[in-house]
Amino acid sequence: MRIRNNNNNKDDFDPNAVNEDGSPVVRVRLPKKWANEQFAFADLMMGANHIRVRCYDGVTRMGRIKGKIKKRVWIREGDVLIVTPWSFQDDKCDIIYRYLPPQADWLRKNRYL
């Protein structure tokens, strides 16, 4: 459900918006296939911004938290992530996004995971 605020920006969403059934509206970013992004699960915290992740393609990779999200997002074991595998080293990847618990529930409910 799209609700506009009073300002002129057409892409604003009301954070208190609800669906017809009373559930809150959940915005979820999906992996971009053209950018080689995929889902992954955080397995083991290695320290120094490195996490061992289980990717959706079945490969276990060493993930590196990108600087853009390093200080803003705390990643724990079991979190659902979006990663981009390195093109020159297949056993490593960059972690670019972490899903919040309501977003992960939405992904499971809609069979993305």
CATH class of the domain at 33-109: Mainly Beta
Radius of gyration: 16 Å
- SSE order, one letter for each helix or strand: EEEHEEH
Provide the β-strand percentage band: 25-35%
Number of strands: 5
Which regions are unreliable across 5 or more consecutive residues at pLDDT < 50?
none
Using the 3D structure, state the CATH architecture of the domain at 33-109. Beta Barrel
Q: Main β-sheet, in a few words?
A: 5 strands, mixed, barrel
Helix and strand topology:
Elements: E1 38-47, E2 50-55, E3 60-65, H1 67-70, E4 80-85, E5 92-98, H2 101-109
Parallel strand pairs: 3-5
Antiparallel strand pairs: 1-2, 1-4, 2-3, 4-5
